[in-house]
């Protein structure tokens, strides 16, 4: 049994009763109420509580003492929560930030972080005896609610904008929801859904104003802090030691936002953990929007206390097309003003590019709305707002299924036709197939990577493989690299400068002194801060100079392609 009450942040009124159908402050009428718990008792019994956590599996319901459901018998669950926290090594090397983690919400039951919201909201509906509900959505909320309502035996009416991909609409219908397509903006869709519910006396899910919705998103913060405590435990010795806490908060929490529900809930969760002594600091918050519908980011940059409405969204990323975020903006701005952070916007093209980068660099395929957060990360690192040593967690909020055509464009696959001729009769077809593949791409080039760091070689290889059929050879030190280049005569050398025994400068001198290798283009990729004399020494000897941790794949590839032509 969970003990909690509601508090009105506007007038301070304490409300004991809780109903999902319209809780509001009896004193001032405010609908934006907050759930509060007996934090003092939880803190006193913290060791016992942590022991209980270890016995409850990985579902978000392991944190039930801090969730507003009276009776656990009413839980409607599909195994949500417990999603992995993944350290992205390639991306960290690319950006020069070694401690970037991804909270992989794609692995939720229906493929998005909205399953957290659905499990708690539908459980509360069940506890209060509701049999019908109405929701307005840009896709993922409707899918999550439809799945959980099906499990609970609740009839769901899902209002979606016409921009929602038809595949998502069909998935809602598959779960038994009544899908209503609204040919208008998401804000208008919400108005129509709310009026439909009012006229029929049905429960309308109020999103950010819903106690259950906000409280469910706290569990992302709980899991992140618990998982970081294992992945990056604090040092207890030396000058870098910090006060030892059981769990650890990141220095930055980053999420793409539409109405702001996810980060509002996550920051409330971090505040509760800090109050209980489980973490020793609060993270800075970065909220990222699509620039074609960025009322929060635009208003934040202008220092406005309330967000100006975007009447006509101009983004292809429909999931983020909320033009009127309302009070959500004020709450997020207060968090940023208090704990630090930023609100940024990125273009649709930057988001689609981030889809490619994350899929090809880390094997993480995500929907464009999730990629907006990663495009924002690139921007914040590039602008120096996020420090090189900061611990960063990015919410990967949903999976890209099905793959959207405009992400891949045309020509994303190749057809290989093997003629049924007599040359294959009684013989292996391997040579003929290889010949066909060679005829498909007669511009394949060879590249030698010479770098003593295995992670750097892997990253450079991955960048090249993602963009072309290059024949790539590698060497792990300068002397081996020089022998490799002399033996294979590649079309290009990607060379590190800082290597033991024979460094990159010596390799370069030897290549230029040899008539057989002196004309091979060389791109230097180095972490070394070069002096003026060192830069002068490289002038005229190399085709490009790139700093490790400060290049993105498009920039590097452009230099490589230019050198090859």
Q: What this model shows, in words?
A:
- With 565 residues, the protein is an alpha/beta fold.
- The chain has two domains: 4-111 and 210-234 and 245-405, 3-Layer(aba) Sandwich (Rossmann fold), CATH 3.40.50.1100; 442-564, Response regulator (Rossmann fold, 3-Layer(aba) Sandwich), CATH 3.40.50.
- It is 40% helix and 15% strand.
- The protein is built from 20 helices and 18 strands.
- It has helices spanning 39-44, 46-53, 89-95, 114-127, 140-152, 166-174, 186-200, 211-231, 261-276, 295-301, 327-339, 348-362, 368-382, 405-408, 430-440, 454-467, 478-488, 504-513, 532-538, 553-564; strands at residues 4-7, 14-15, 34-37, 85-87, 100-104, 132-137, 155-161, 178-182, 203-204, 252-256, 284-290, 341-346, 392-396, 446-450, 471-475, 492-495, 522-526, 544-547.
- 44% of the residues are buried.
- The model is unreliable at 412-418 and 420-442 (pLDDT under 50).
Features:
565 residues; alpha/beta; Rossmann fold; 6-stranded mixed β-sheet; 5-stranded parallel β-sheet; 20 helices; 18 strands; 15% strand; elongated
